[in-house]
Design brief:
This protein is α+β, with helices and mostly antiparallel strands and about 425 residues long. Helix content is about 20%, strand content about 30%. The protein contains 11 helices and 26 strands. The strands form 5 sheets. The protein has an 8-stranded mixed beta sheet. β25 and β26 form a beta hairpin. It is elongated.
Length: about 425
């Protein structure tokens, strides 16, 4: 069981009086109050580093906090340890004879699951175990008709990357308002390949991370594989054999790891009858990684494709299939590209890692992973301006909730209008 300090609960008789010390005298920031009706208590969280102080005021004479203050006076009420799996943690403690106040985890503040350990088993200290509320996600298929083309946003499950790296120079106090981090500072992300169907066949743009991962790598990236690309294709009435073209925006593992599979004969193409379209300069960069990108370019994801003779290399921006053209952006990688899909007088843009989530629609919100961030900034400003002015439909490859939407601007504020 891995546990870290989440907060220290402090029972107070009057929240406003307590804030005169914590907020006014110490100068600490205080979050908005929260009523926990089940416990008849009002809470104010005071962040201090990676943990917090939780000020607790009773809202009823029969609440646990009221009884505590009556018996002992104001002071430290409990400590809270955050765990990843509260059910497993509670079972482990129970198996070792630890007395639990709660027979089963219950919902506490912020929608978290909590279990209290009786002070008799913790040397006189009331200990709370907490599992944060599950980050919501929506991996249902999104189907959109664009002129003569059918677009279907698929998925290859969920994973996590460091929140600071995903938002670069943007302070955590800002980006954490858009997406919560876990106790290892990672945020939840989706992998959303795009299926494009036309008279010329079926193309998949990017193909997720696949399943060629060691247990250590699965832990690092927190891959959730309960639902993945095979399931998404099945939901669309297809399988891997139905794909005619697999197009790479770039060759990082979370975008093209699913291009190959490991079978009894070794590594093989994931899509048995497909041609794989790859920009040759990106291929050369991937074959010669350096310290900044070595962890993202994994040869098993793309080298077997050339060995199998299924790669179609190309050099410049061009139309890959009617209505589908690639445009180099650079920035994230030297040869990173986005994909324009155009038909019936409408345009959709698969922006890959130029605008990975809806939180990245602000110009300076650029990933720390980007090798050439100023190049990202220049291109991103142009692409977003065009998307707003010309009503381009944007596909967000890594957003866990929104597969596609229109970027709007009102009174100087940008937001995304999702398309379901």
């Amino acid at each position: 069981m891995r546990a870290i300090l989440d907060h220290v609960g402090i029972a107070v008789q009057d929240l406003e009086l307590a804030l005169k010390f914590y907020r006014d005298a110490l100068g600490l920031e205080v979050e908005a109050p929260e009523e926990v009706a089940s416990q008849r208590v009002r809470a104010r969280s005071v962040p201090v580093g990676q943990a917090a102080l939780e000020l607790l005021e009773a809202t009823s004479p029969d609440s646990a906090i009221s009884r505590y203050i009556e018996a002992r006076g104001p002071g430290m009420h409990h400590i809270t340890l955050r765990v990843e799996d509260i059910h497993a943690a509670a079972a482990q403690l129970a198996s070792r004879g630890v007395r639990l106040v709660d027979p089963e985890p219950r919902v506490g503040a912020e929608g978290a699951l909590v279990v209290f350990v009786h002070p008799s088993s913790a040397h006189g200290v009331l200990v709370e175990l907490k599992q944060g509320a599950r980050v919501p996600s929506d991996l249902s298929l999104t189907r959109i008709r664009l002129g003569d083309l059918q677009l279907t946003s698929l998925h290859d499950g969920l994973f996590r990357l460091d929140g600071g790296a995903m938002f670069g120079v943007v302070p955590r106090t800002m980006w954490e308002k858009t997406t919560a981090a876990d106790d290892r500072h990672r945020i939840q992300l989706a992998m959303r390949p795009l299926l494009v169907e036309g008279e010329w066949g079926r193309m998949i743009i990017d193909c997720g991370a696949g399943d060629k991962w060691t247990p250590k790598e699965r832990d690092i990236y927190a891959f959730e594989r309960g639902r993945h690309l095979d399931h998404a294709l099945a939901d669309a009435g297809l399988d891997a054999g139905a794909i005619d073209v697999a197009l790479a925006t770039h060759l990082h593992f979370d975008h093209f790891g699913g291009a190959t599979v490991r079978g009894h004969m070794g590594l093989a193409p994931r899509f048995p009858r497909a041609r794989y379209a790859i920009r040759v300069a990106e291929w050369l960069d991937a074959l010669h990684p350096h310290e900044r990108n070595r962890a993202s370019y994994l040869g098993d994801n793309f080298v077997p494709l050339k060995d199998a003779g299924v790669v179609d290399f190309y050099e410049n921006d061009q139309t890959i299939r009617p209505g589908v053209r690639v445009v180099r952006t650079g920035g994230h990688t030297g040869q990173h590209q986005i994909v324009y899909i155009e038909s019936g007088g409408r345009t959709a843009v698969f922006t890959a890692d130029l605008i990975p989530t809806t939180a990245h629609i602000h110009d300076p919100w650029i990933m720390g992973y980007d090798l050439f961030p100023m190049e990202t900034l220049v291109v991103k400003k142009r692409v977003i301006r065009e998307a707003i002015d010309r009503e381009h439909l944007i596909f967000f490859e890594h957003d866990p909730l929104v597969a596609a939407g229109y970027i709007r601007e009102r009174d100087g504020r940008r937001f995304v209008e999702p398309v379901r």
